[in-house]
Design a protein that fits this description.
single chain; mainly alpha; High-Potential Iron-Sulfur Protein, Chain A; 2 domains; binds iron/sulfur cluster
Length: about 90
């Protein structure tokens, strides 16, 4: 099958976007795989001895004080939660 140079040039941007999209998906997947489960670090939704996720260096706050995420633990994380990986910020 022969493709003219003009057709090839017209398809190039879509091809580049497809490659960029595939790279982005692979990167996201790798990051998700790197996170540990809540069970593995005994995550709980309540503080422990005054320590809670909002005071942890790994916590990424959500919008308006709602649930956020964690750089270590997978899933939605409560600002008042706690786990064994707690590290004071
Ligand atoms: S590491 Fe544990 S304590 Fe720290 S933000 Fe993540 S879930 Fe909360």
């Amino acid at each position: 099958m022969q493709v003219s140079r003009r057709k090839l040039m017209a398809r190039l941007p879509r091809f580049a976007l497809a490659i960029a999209g595939a790279d982005l998906l692979a990167e996201r997947s790798a990051r998700a795989d790197a996170l540990v489960s809540k069970d593995s670090v005994s995550y709980q939704t309540t503080p422990s001895n005054g320590q809670q996720c909002s005071g942890c260096t790994h916590f990424v706050p959500g919008a308006a004080g709602g649930p956020g995420t964690c750089k270590v633990v997978a899933g939605s994380i409560s600002p008042t939660g706690y786990c064994l990986a707690f590290t004071a910020s």
